[in-house]
Amino acid sequence: MMDRRSFLKKLFSSLALSGGVLGGFFRILPAWGQAKEEPAGKLWGFGVSVDKCIGCARCVVACKSENNVPKEPFFYRTWVERYMIPKEGEAEVTNIHTGLAPEAEVPSKPIFRSFFVPKLCNQCAHPPCVQVCPVGATFSTEDGVVLVNDRTCIGCRYCIQACPYGARYLHPATHTADKCTFCYHRLHRGLLPACVEVCPTQARVIGDLHSAASPMTRFKRMNKIFVLKPNLNTEPKVLYANIDGEVR
Amino acid sequence: MKKPFQKLPESVVRLVTVFAVFIVGTIVVVKFAIPPRFKDTKIQWADTIKQETAKPVQYAGAVACADCHEEVVAQKRKGYHRDLSCETCHGPAKAHTDDPDKVKPPAPRDRKFCPVCHTFNPSRPRGYPMINPVAHNPMKPCFTCHEPHDPKPPTVPRECSACHGEIARTLSVSHHVQLKCTSCHTVPAQHRVSPRVIRPSKPTSRDFCGKCHAKDSTFKGSPKIDLASHGEKYVCWQCHYPHLPEVE
Q: CA-to-CA distance for A121 and B85, rounded, in angstroms?
């Protein structure tokens, strides 16, 4: 028969030894040493005001000429979708033409709401495309952009399958995966990405998420912010303002 | 002293030697023969960033244009196209900024260009200037009427009809066409800023219409009624639509 005192003694000593307390202590211990401020490097973020987009696709044209994206209408680094939400039934999503639309389409059903949604690579903080790359050809840079090394890429298309936003395509000339880089070469020279440069209504915004004075900080402060497919926990760095709940 | 290997059988010694050579060889090959670029993703990624940032730029950016074309920039700054980047219409102009005399950026002069943004499309945001290019002066290039650097609608919509076009059109065929909107509605200045929150007043009493339509009114040329006996419990607009009153 064990008395209460010795029972409690054994209980607490076994708890301590079982690792709960010790383990927790060892876990925080290294953090004390590393508790320094984060490096003040840039972290690029992108903002899209859906209510400003007029669906002119100037961004798509500019992106294609800036980044040597093939002209065919199924290779895109950025594209614009037109949402038609009928009064009853499913939303109809179409990829809009570049240039002059052949003719104004008359919707067959009564339309409840309609708008354009510009899309591009979301430059996720937890990118599924990077996880699946078997050769390490795609990676996140320090400033938050996901890049592809077209000399290492073997063109296996895993990343194209893995991307939940459909932001990647296989370049027909190089046979490697290609995607939006936020115009990394332009950012590096202090220029705006081509799509942001030409957008006639300022529906697209780019800026440093770490800086207090960047257009992105203002964009985040002035708008209610949404991201695409938040349930996937990819933590996109492309933020949407005034977006409809139907958008996926 | 006996050598330790003498104890082992000859075959084992040979096997160990083969393995040792194999292991050492592998280490040497991995360590020295394979270039570090193949083994270390960090180096690959640094290479990618170098490669990416070295890519040529096509769009020079609107800041570059302002260096030489001050007049156009000053003109554009005042107009509706103030936020429009030069290269949205004139195309990528990096070649032009590099060699201004040799390469001239094109200026769009046909009706295929402006309607890309300004054709009516129900998905475009409200209030955005849109036309039907089939019906809107189909034979004239846009720039013959609208200066692209400072575009204006040829006739500016008048005060109320800018938003209440439907009422304005109804009123234009009605007997009340000579009345000003303000003779019946008091419009607070704030109504222009937040039209849905601050609303204009509407006549609420029978005496208001009676100013012209009562038997004893001094106003000439309007149908007269006896206010006391004519539909006594209703306000006038409950039976008569004031913007298009019925004619006997």
A: 23
Q: How far apart are CA B162 and CA B79, in angstroms?
A: 19
Interface size, chain A vs chain B, as Cβ–Cβ contacts under 8 Å? 117
Q: How far apart are CA A225 and CA A45, in angstroms?
A: 12
Distance CA A242, CA A84 (A): 16
Question: Which stretches of A97-214 are DSSP H helices?
Answer: 128-132, 158-162, 184-188, 194-198
**Is there a domain that residue A246 lies in?**
no
For chain A, what is the domain count?
1
The predicted-structure confidence for A17-67, as pLDDT tens digits, reads as follows 676 666 666 666 555 555 555 556 899 999 999 999 999 999 999 999 999
* CATH number of residue A226's parent domain: 3.30.70.20
* Integer angstrom CA distances of residue B67 from A242, B93, B97, B134, B150: 36, 13, 10, 39, 19
Q: What is the CA radius of gyration of chain A?
A: 24
Range of the domain at A216: 44-125+176-241
Bridge partners, residue A169, by sequence:
A178
Beta strands per DSSP E along chain A: 44-49, 78-86, 92-95, 111-120, 138-140, 146-148, 169-170, 177-178, 204-208, 225-226, 238-241
Of A56, A114, A136, the CB nearest to B122: A114
Question: Cα separation of A56 and A97, whole Å?
Answer: 8
Using the beta-carbon criterion (under 8 Å), do A54 and B128 form an inter-chain contact?
Answer: yes
What ipTM goes with this model?
0.76
B41/A136 touch (CB, cutoff 8 Å), yes or no: yes
Which residues partner with A119 through β-bridges? A79
Residues A128 and A162: their CA atoms lie apart, in Å, by: 6
Please, are residues B195 and B160 in contact by the beta-carbon 8 Å criterion?
Answer: no
* B134-144 per-position pLDDT tens digit: 877 777 788 88
In-domain check, residue A167? no
Task: Give dist(CA B136, CA A219) in Å, integer.
Answer: 37
CA-based nearest distance B83→chain A, Å:
7
Say if A215 falls within a structural domain.
yes
For residue A12, being part of any structural domain is answered with no
* Cα separation, B56 vs B49, whole angstroms: 14
CB-based contact A149 B125, cutoff 8 Å: no
pTM of the predicted model over 0.90: no
